[in-house]
Amino acid sequence: MNFKMSIASNLQKVKSQLPKNVTLVAVSKTKPVADILEAYNAGQRIFGENKIQEMVDKQAQLPSDIQWHMIGHLQRNKVKYMASFVSMIHGVDSGKTLLEINKQANKHNRIIDCLLQVKIAEEETKFGLSEDEVCHILNDPKIQSMENCRIVGLMGMATFTDDTLQIEREFEHLYQFYSSLQPKHPYFKTLSMGMSGDYKIAINLGSTMVRLGSLIFGAR
Ligand SMILES: *Cc1c(COP(=O)(O)O)cnc(C)c1O
């Protein structure tokens, strides 16, 4: 079996393990267009990238019915390059960035779905908002009046560790916070948590969207 065959079979295997209510984002960062096409031909339509320029280049070469998700840390001045096509932005960590997304989406007469990234990991290196900051953003009238940027949920990354209990604690915490916001925010429908190493834990703790890279495309 060659490498490309294995992308399709990896995908099939992963999908067979996901509950129906959990959406799969195939994280294709650093991988060539041919690999993405292989996954596409196996039925996958949602792909995640963490660099805007890389996503823009790939989008131009691939079928137009792909839904592109930006999962990386955002540079506000680059939002304009993806505003015409990006389907969901996971890593939003400021009100200013939301307002820029709203402005750029408006130019294309589109609505872009966004997730607020919450810092749940104990690692210093992982970025994201505190719960207070999330509430502050959600209560800001300028944010509430946005017409082209819709906040549809939260995203979080657990600490990179073998300590399953710690990962569970961090995901459980994010799930509780998400659940507490949901009644007041009718658009909240997405909790993006879980990567190749921890997605099973995330699903057990209420994830509705997993972002899987190496499990599908192999090691980077
Ligand atoms: C790279 C990346 C992933 C996928 O990581 P894997 O361990 O390869 O599944 C998921 N989420 C984010 C934010 C990433 O940057």
What are the SSEs and their pairings?
Layout: H1 3-17, E1 23-27, H2 33-41, E2 46-49, H3 52-61, E3 67-70, H4 79-82, E4 88-92, H5 95-107, E5 112-118, H6 131-138, H7 141-144, E6 149-156, H8 164-181, E7 190-192, H9 199-204, E8 209-212, H10 214-217
Parallel strand pairs: 1-2, 1-8, 2-3, 3-4, 4-5, 5-6, 6-7
The structure holds pyridoxal-5'-phosphate (PLP).
Apparent shape: globular
Secondary-structure element string: HEHEHEHEHEHHEHEHEH
- Kindly report the spatial arrangement of strands forming the biggest sheet: 7-6-5-4-3-2-1-8
The helical percent reads: 40-55%
User: How much beta, percentage-wise?
Assistant: 15-25%
What's the structural domain tally? 1
Keyword list:
single chain; about 220 residues; alpha/beta; TIM Barrel; eight-stranded parallel sheet; 10 helices; about 20% strand; binds pyridoxal-5'-phosphate
Architecture overview:
Helices cover 41% and strands 18% of the residues. By secondary structure, the protein is an alpha/beta fold. The chain has one domain: Alanine racemase (TIM Barrel), CATH 3.20.20.10. Strands 7-6-5-4-3-2-1-8 form an 8-stranded parallel beta sheet. Strand 2 (46-49), helix 3 and strand 3 (67-70) form a beta-alpha-beta unit. The longest helix is centred in the last third of the chain and has 18 residues, at 164-181. It is globular and about 50 Å long. The protein starts with a helix and ends with a helix. 39% of the residues are buried. The structure holds pyridoxal-5'-phosphate. The site of pyridoxal-5'-phosphate has 13 residues, from strand 8 and helix 10.
